Amino acid sequence: MSIGLLSLIVIVLAVAGYFAGRRLAVSKVAGDIRKLHSLPSYYGQTVFLFTAVPALLFLAAWLLIQPLLIESRVSAMLNVADVPDGSSVSLMMTDVRRIANGIDLMLAKGGLNSADIAAMRTDLTDVRGRLAEVGVALGTNVTPAVFAAGKAYHDLSGTSRMMMTVGVLALALAGFVYAISRIQPEFRARNVTEAFVKVLLIGASCIAILTTVGIVLSLVFETISFFRIYPAKDFFLSLTWNPKFGGGSDLGIWPLIWGTLYISFIALLVSVPVGIFAAIFLAEYASKKVRAVAKPLIEILAGIPTIVYGLFALITVGPMLRDYFAQPMGFGSSSSSVMTAGVVMGLMLIPFVSSLSDDIINAVPQSLRDGSYGLGATQSETIKQVILPAALPGIVGAVLLAASRAIGETMIVVMGAGAAAKMSLNPFEAMTTVTVKIVSQLTGDTEFASPETLVAFALGLTLFVFTLGLNILALVIVRKYREQYE
Amino acid sequence: MTAPSTNIPVPAADFRPSLYKTDSRTKRRNAAETRFRAYGIAAVAFGVLALVVLLTSVLSQGLSAFRQTTMVMQVELDPAVLDKTGNRDPAELGKVTTITYGRLLDDALNKELAGKGLIPEGMSARDVSAMISKEAPAQLRKIVLADPSKIGSTISFDAWTGGRIDGFFKGRVTMESAQLDSNVTPEQLQLAQAMRDAGLITMPFNWAFITGPDASEVRPEAAGLGVAILGSAYMMLIVLALALPIGVAASIYLEEFASKNWFTDLIEVNIANLAAVPSIVFGILGLAVFINFAGMPQSSPLVGGLVLTLMTLPTIIISTRAALKAVPPSIKDAALGVGASKTQTIFHHVLPLAMPGILTGTIIGLAQALGETAPLLLIGMVAFVRDYPGAPPEGFLDPASALPVQVYNFTQRADPAFVERASGAIIVLLVFLLAMNILAVILRRKFERRW
């Protein structure tokens, strides 16, 4: 039974439960609803909630855990001795999954029944050819062990599906019966419903925690397995980044960190002065009309997807910088460079710096300005000597947030900075960043369990820690040094 | 103020004979003031200029993608070629390959050229037929297979020209560049120009760019966005269906029920932190949890939608809480006063009044999610997908692409014609974003209440 149909059945049952519960409550008091503790619809709602929610949660949990269980059962069937040279258990598991999927298709399209499949043997039938007929391509011929594992995988997932369907329906029915049996005129249906809803609300809030836990766990676990096959010392201390397909790669993080910091530095060099001056102008000098036009225009820059900036770097800024700066001045002939990515990222960050600084400058009380003007200071002197010092912590916070954006930005550097891991001072040379390498290591065709792929998780963890640290620092600075005005 | 001002000693050097005469120090200060102001104006101008340059660059590169160079020709669907047995059996018709249809198109083109008196000078028959897109025979075949009764008649068919001819009329390919290019000859371009003058080549609006599927590296003229738009739409549906209820529920709890304790603090810190986590980290999460752990299919809109949901949640929660906070306490007090329970007060009174703000925040969150690329790259959406995903809910598991990822895909290909396609795709993306933002503004203008 498909998952869509199953959840539909549960929901239909729950809706039926709502009406049944409501009716039952009304009939128990012979239509005189004043005798009920709660309004009749609350009795219906308890039935609805008890029927639908546990069953659907069970369904979701099962779908998450089922593949894991099956996988571990089936991979235990594969002997290490069966693994051919140049392959691994995880590669064989891919084949096993494909075969299981192929068996499904053979049953559906190939005109075979389950007895045929059970009787099918690799030494008698051309299984690979058969699978290819239904559109499942396998790289190698099927060995008996793998095919047996594939059959087991198929059978197990069938049984598991069956158990899931039974479990979900049983849970829904049990909830239905339990909720119906509780309906009495004195049953506090509203309180029960409200408590139930409150639990659901708390559950929704916990998704934020779960997401963070998921991020940290997935990063940490894969990073640990990376350090098991690749020495941590080399990762943190080596100055070369040179992944190779066949193994024996150098995976030192420093060239990537250097590229990341260099590009972010240039981005901040562009965005901080422009952003702060724009904020000062908009907050202190601009008339209402100018502000109403210019502020949204600059903020549009923040709403444009980064892929657009990436394309802009690739087709406009990169070639322009190369033709007018790098080549005439003899700095190189690469259109993707630190400068390209940095300048374009700087444009993207202008609104981050300017909006936050603008808010902070506006929060400085008018009395400070008036005091300064009263002493004879000009407007610019007031800004430089009174307003900016008062707003400084906030502005530093804004700059740090912009820096954290710059470090975590992906598309602009993927399309503008290049892929060569180098540690050079020349800003017109192509360099690469942590995010670029995460993308390239995880979208390649390398096997998942190899250090070349797993290094992406170590890079991701580094990135996560870096940006988290910057964000916390920004918050601390803003909180600690914020002037309290009454 | 007892001391008369005349008693204050005035330093001789700074002595000002008259208020009307500015001294050097005042001049300096005024100049500094003007300069400072000019920096501010320059900064704002720089920001606005950056926006204008960015948009004009994309528009100028991409608008041409919406027009497609097309040859209008009368194709005779010869039954002797297409259906040798004459019984219109679909199975047999299906065996006729695109090579055969290509020959039909060549004949038709030659006939059209002869009809207009255009003689392809210095060109082999191969060069002439190379002007037609390699996609055109497949399209003709599709038309015939869809309606076999057309065999035997002569139909009017719009055949796309090859990518280089297309580029010639869009200014991307010139006679000089053609000389160095192995894919096109100057003679072909001259003939194309003559055909254009004779009305054989037109440039109509290119619907196939918006609805068609992606095409391979060598057929930039056929590459479309249909699969990507559908994939993005599926993901937006999932994000809307998950992020809106979860976000609203979480906001209600945090804003209305939660007492101040360590648990609430933990949730608040987590939400603030998630809003600042780089998007690519969410991609890693999706890869590790949804694909490797839960075994969901790669490059499916379901996984993409889940990842984007987690990314969008903080945005929706923050704006929903602001909207809930804006509802005045007097309304709550009144409801509680006439005997409503706390839950009733919130669901019957506060939530409906906060709805416009919530919807505005949701649309802005969706717009953000629509433009997000990096996490989708990691969950396998970069794969080349030509088949449209099926109808939901099963279609949520089919491989699909997404609009921003399609842009990235186009830029990774060697043929310069794909730059035009990428910019065109950006225009489509920006139009969607603009529409969503305008909708948000309208909602806010129309329903926002000032208490």
Plain-language structure description:
The complex is a heterodimer of chains A (486) and B (451). Chain A has 486 residues and is mainly alpha-helical. Chain A has two domains: 3-187, no CATH class; 250-481, MetI-like (MetI-like fold, Orthogonal Bundle), CATH 1.10.3720. Chain A has helices spanning 3-28, 40-77, 89-108, 114-119, 127-133, 144-181, 189-229, 232-237, 254-285, 288-303, 306-326, 338-363, 366-374, 379-408, 411-416, 434-443, 451-481, and strands at residues 241-242, 250-251. A two-stranded antiparallel ribbon of chain A has the order 1-2. In chain A, a hairpin with a 7-residue loop joins strand 1 (241-242) and strand 2. The longest helix of chain A is centred in the middle third of the chain and has 41 residues, at 189-229. Chain A is flat. The N and C termini of chain A lie far apart (65 Å). Chain B has 451 residues and is mainly α. Chain B folds into three domains: 26-63; 68-204, no CATH class; 226-447, MetI-like fold (Orthogonal Bundle), CATH 1.10.3720. In chain B, 63% of the residues lie in helices and 4% in strands. Chain B has 19 helices and three strands. Chain B has helices spanning 24-62, 79-82, 90-95, 98-115, 125-129, 136-146, 163-169, 175-180, 186-197, 207-211, 226-257, 262-276, 279-293, 301-326, 329-337, 342-371, 374-378, 403-411, 417-447; strands at 70-76, 154-160, 201-202. Chain B has a three-stranded antiparallel beta sheet. In chain B, helix 16 (342-371) runs antiparallel to helix 19 (417-447). Chain B is extended, with a radius of gyration of 32 Å.
